[in-house]
Amino acid sequence: MKAIIAGGGTAGHINPGLAIGKYLRDKKGAEILFIGTKKGFETKLVPLEGFTLKTINVRGFRRSLSFDTFVAIKELFQGLFQARKILKEYKPDIVIGTGGYVCGPVLFAASRLKIPTLIHEQNAYPGLTNRILSRFVKKVAISFSESEKYFKTRNLIMTGNPIRNDILEADRQKARIEIGLDADRKLVVIFGGSRGAEKINETVSEMLVKYYSEKDFDIIYATGESQFRKISERLWHRIPDTVKIVPYIYDMAQVMSSADLVVSRAGAITISELTALGIPAILIPSPHVTANHQEHNARALEKAGAAVVMTENELKSELLYDYIKKIITDDEIAKTMSRNSKNIAKLDATEKIYSIIQQLTNTTE
Length: 365
Known about the structure:
- By secondary structure, the protein is of the alpha/beta class.
- It is 45% helix and 15% strand.
- It contains 15 helices and 13 strands.
- The protein has a 7-stranded parallel sheet, with helices on both faces. Strands 10-9-8-11-12-13 form a 6-stranded parallel sheet, sandwiched between helices.
- The longest helix is centred in the first third of the chain and has 24 residues, at 67-90.
């Protein structure tokens, strides 16, 4: 089987594609080609996993008419031409989209060429690109029942979010040794997404300077690529060696499986990985997403007793530190949150997606 996977922009769109791609390649022997853009995070993440990435021109449309609108229209047509050329040369058996602007021209071109097509929507509120594409593709895999009402198609299948195999098979003890953690040290992992989060970075920086002591626990803190230099310079010589500051956590399976507590945004893929590993969490939903879907994600974990939720309006350095200390120093609280998290995990999404692929391509084991 030969498959093309299109997805890009943020890790939230790329990681589901990587989960599907690695499953098809490693478990089913498929050939995989990724399509993305030159400006998205896929240029870093996809090659790291050993996949070939081809790029096309495409960008998002602004809501107001401007010169950028005409540039976006021009690039859309360029992207369609480029996608069609790649599809004709590669001759895939199926084309899969996992989100981002790049999916538009790739999946539309594939549908016009009568190639079986599938898109996967991670969130309860689907993005505009996927809502438009749902009218052209063969199947739409969804992760939340709430998203059904936004799609004008009956070709919906509930799968949940695919989780990378390295997350599912992570060995906590081995990972902690490889990271270099002492057996008796607790680890808190903090990140705000692949692009970072300014409010989280401001609060965490203040918390580390005012309240954190190296005696408390270890921290791995990812600032996001764009804010790494600023945060590093701000904290230089002001924090102990028990805090490791990085721009992005590339070995996420290793780091997450080592964690005793995660402080993060509440993107759909992050939620899926937290519950798969059963990690207690403090979730800070992004207020800058459509239909406030991250808060809905976070509240679901809070309701299940698996997470504490702090909105950005509530986010204060002292309060954040109090929550961290309460969870990290009380084994009973941490164990209960971990157990509750695992109870709501969905671990078979990738297999369900593969069943759809088999159906669309008429393949069997």
